[in-house]
Design a protein that fits this description.
This protein has 180 residues and is α+β, with helices and mostly antiparallel strands. It has helices spanning 42-51, 59-63, 74-83, 142-148, 153-159; strands at 6-9, 22-25, 132-135, 175-179. The strands form two sheets. It has a two-stranded antiparallel ribbon. The protein has a two-stranded antiparallel ribbon with strand order 3-4. The termini are far apart.
């Protein structure tokens, strides 16, 4: 029950009882709840991206349902620093992983990333000379992406023309060009 001050009012109420009293709250203004806005820290994101470049579990492996728990338990200690790194620690060098620690592979493979991998899904009409990509996350917009990666809106729109100047075709989960 509201503990605030109540006053009687002169509202007209038709009733069969001999009483004509209305109670109402004189303090009906409530503040809106606080909101939180989360933005991706580009420095941390790029640090993590650099550190996971040697992880033998690819986005395709993960999309196919693979997890670290599908591999032998001994692989966890070997893979954790490469697949779930601490962004504050140095980048580990490329290495070879035992075949049993790589999903669906008959032999050990080098974890050296390809020289120019084009990620998928990619926004349509993204320029072919792109050097660095970024996966659009929930809450992103063209301005926040350009701002986080220190590029201009003109550069972003030139490299990602399909998105449009009004950013209406920026698709969640798709990659956009952030450096050319």
């Amino acid at each position: 029950m509201f503990p605030g001050p109540y006053t009687t009012g002169g509202a007209v109420v038709t009733t069969t009882s001999p009483f004509n009293t209305t109670w109402y709250n004189t303090q009906t203004t409530f503040s809106p709840p606080p909101t939180k806005t989360h933005t991706l820290n580009a420095t941390v994101a790029s640090a993590v991206a650099a550190r996971i470049s040697y992880c033998p579990l690819s986005d395709d492996d993960i999309a196919d349902g693979w997890t670290i728990y599908d591999l032998p338990a001994a692989c966890a200690d070997l893979l954790n620093p490469y697949c779930w790194p601490d962004p504050n620690k140095p980048i580990l060098p490329s290495t070879k992983f035992p075949a049993v620690c790589t999903p669906n592979r008959a032999s050990a493979t080098s974890s050296t990333p390809p020289t120019k991998a084009i990620p998928t899904p990619l926004e349509p009409s993204t320029i072919s000379s792109c050097k660095q990509y970024y996966k659009v996350l929930d809450g992103d917009n063209c301005y926040s992406i350009a701002n986080n990666f220190k590029i201009t809106a003109t550069q972003f729109n030139t490299w990602n023309p399909y998105v449009g100047a009004d950013c209406s075709k920026l698709w969640l989960g798709y990659y956009v060009c952030i450096s050319a």
